[in-house]
Specification:
single chain; about 140 residues; mainly alpha; Multidrug-efflux Transporter Regulator, Chain: A, Domain 2; two-stranded antiparallel ribbon; 6 helices; elongated; binds zinc ion; DNA-bd_dom_put_sf; MerR-type_HTH_dom
Length: about 140
């Protein structure tokens, strides 16, 4: 992970508690992301100190998670040496998202549709959705 060679510990740097509060995250999530190689905050003694760049990284992780990226992909995206590597990963994720949206759209249409069946579990349309799920699994 790219880090500035010398990190000056100054008053602008934030503690893990401040960062957690700022993003509404439990502190253990920040420690977990660090253990997974997504974050590398500086240390003042044993205490973590987060720079503005670290905060932007947390924001990037949250945006990527919202877009459905898995942690391993996010790590690759954050640590990829080239913009091309990141673009390739984003393109793959776009395809996965399109597929997920299509499935969600189909599910919504099923639930929105004027199904005459009283019980969803006995509805043939719903059962065919289950069949498709079984074929995928
Ligand atoms: Zn039905």
């Amino acid at each position: 992970m790219d880090m500035p060679p010398i990190l000056r510990l100054n008053a602008d740097m934030k503690s893990i508690g401040e960062v957690a509060a700022r993003f509404g995250l439990p502190a253990h999530v920040l420690r977990y992301w660090e253990a997974e190689g997504l974050l590398a905050p500086a240390r003042a003694g044993t205490r973590r100190r987060y720079t503005d760049a670290d905060l932007r990284r947390v924001a990037a992780i949250l945006v990527a998670k919202e877009a459905g990226f898995e942690l391993a992909d996010i790590r690759t995206m954050l640590t990829a040496r080239s913009a091309a590597g990141r673009a390739e990963m984003a393109a793959r994720q776009r395809e996965r998202l399109r597929a997920r949206i299509a499935r969600a759209q189909a599910a919504l249409e099923l639930l929105d549709g004027d199904c005459p069946h009283e019980d969803l579990m006995t509805c043939p349309h719903f059962q065919s959705l289950l069949d498709r799920q079984l074929e995928r699994s």
